[in-house]
Design goal:
It contains three helices and four strands. With about 150 residues, the protein is α+β, with helices and mostly antiparallel strands. A four-stranded antiparallel beta sheet has the order 1-2-3-4, covered by helices on one side. Strand 3 and strand 4 form a beta hairpin. The longest helix has about 40 residues. The radius of gyration is 32 Å and the shape is elongated.
Amino acid sequence: MAKVNISNLKLAAAKKARDPKDLTIGILTLAAIIAIGLIGGNYYNKYQDSQNEVKRLTADPQEAAKAQLKDVVAKVGALTELPKDETPTLATVADPDKLKDQPFFANTQKGDQALIYTQAKKAYLYRPSTNKLLEIAPINIGAPAERN
């Protein structure tokens, strides 16, 4: 039988355990696992929040419309001064081709939104995709003139 020198084996094992490359790899692996866990947890929380918001807005369509109006008014209000003491009407462009003959909607795209303030007699055309105010125009909403 061959003799094995145990002290040489212990020394080799001790050197291998203290190798700085192994320690660095272990620390980097642990850091990557923690980072992936934190990022995954963040996305999971955002997903849960969005699902809760969908449930809340689906349960009450009127609440969804109010929330959308409030959001659009806030975004347009950040771009320009809006009338204060009036709640506007919000209209979303579904078919821009039907509106091309109206100068206010000449450059509109599907999804653009119009805020209409009847008392202030102003309309604001807003594009949510670019967060740009496209048009501001006076409006004339009144009773139709009587015909003789």
